[in-house]
Amino acid sequence: MTRTIATIGYQAATMASFLRALRDAGVELLVDVRAVASSRRPGFSKTALAAHLRGAGIEYVHLRGLGTPAEGRAAARSGRHEVMRAIFLEHMETPAARAELEALAGLVEARQVCVLCFEADPSHCHRSIVVEQLARLRPLRVRHLMPEDE
């Protein structure tokens, strides 16, 4: 059976539009794949985000091992997305990343999952690589959520 997995970036979102996008997509579990789950955006750091999600009836899990290493984050910030991609693909070969990818595969089997990172454009974000790698383990359909304010 082919499962659907969603991805979302909160870069341009308010908390209201972010939660609305998740609810509208039927997300039951948000999987945070940031290496560092803190944010300058109010409400999007790990503890506050988990509380907002809990209030919306959505579970939260942080899989730090699926986050981009520091040098990959620096490349992404400077717009060198191909460099970030190469760094992250190398990282995905590590035992820790492979183990967390397997954990994510198990979560996707049981629930409607959405993978979270910062970048609004999924083509510039490592979360797209995470779901590409995951699709090699399980048949998946990917849906990129784009929170919009009304």
Concise structural overview:
With 150 residues, this protein is of the alpha/beta class. Helices cover 43% and strands 17% of the residues. It has a single domain, classed as Cobalt-precorrin-4 Transmethylase, domain 1 (3-Layer(aba) Sandwich), CATH 3.40.1010.
Features:
150 residues, 5 strands, alpha/beta, single chain, 5-stranded parallel β-sheet
Textual characterization of the structure:
With 150 residues, this protein is an alpha/beta fold. The protein has one domain (3-145): Cobalt-precorrin-4 Transmethylase, domain 1 (3-Layer(aba) Sandwich), CATH 3.40.1010. The protein is built from 6 helices and 5 strands; from the N terminus they run βαβαβαααβαβ. It has a 5-stranded parallel beta sheet with strand order 3-2-4-1-5, with helices on both faces. Strand 2, helix 2 and strand 3 form a beta-alpha-beta unit. Helix 3 packs antiparallel against helix 4. The longest helix has 16 residues, at 95-110. It is globular, with a radius of gyration of 14 Å. It starts with a strand and ends in a 5-residue tail after the last strand. The model has no long low-confidence stretch (mean pLDDT 94).
Write the layout of secondary structure elements.
Elements: E1 3-9, H1 15-24, E2 29-32, H2 46-55, E3 59-62, H3 70-77, H4 81-91, H5 95-110, E4 113-117, H6 126-135, E5 140-145
Parallel strand pairs: 1-4, 1-5, 2-3, 2-4
What is the number of beta strands? 5
Give the strand order, joined by hyphens, for the main sheet: 3-2-4-1-5
Q: H/E order of the elements?
A: EHEHEHHHEHE
CATH architecture type:
3-Layer(aba) Sandwich
- Please give the largest β-sheet: 5 strands, parallel
**In terms of structural class, how would the helical and strand content be classed?**
alpha/beta
Q: How many domains, in number, for the residues? A: 1
Radius of gyration: 14 Å
Parts with pLDDT < 50 across at least 5 consecutive residues = none
What top-tier CATH class fits best?
A: Alpha Beta
Distance between the termini: 35 Å
Count of separate DSSP helical elements: 6
Basic shape: globular
Provide the β-strand percentage band: 15-25%
At CATH level 3, the topology is Cobalt-precorrin-4 Transmethylase, domain 1
Into which percent range does the helicity of residues fall?
A: 40-55%
Averaging pLDDT over every residue, what do you get? 94
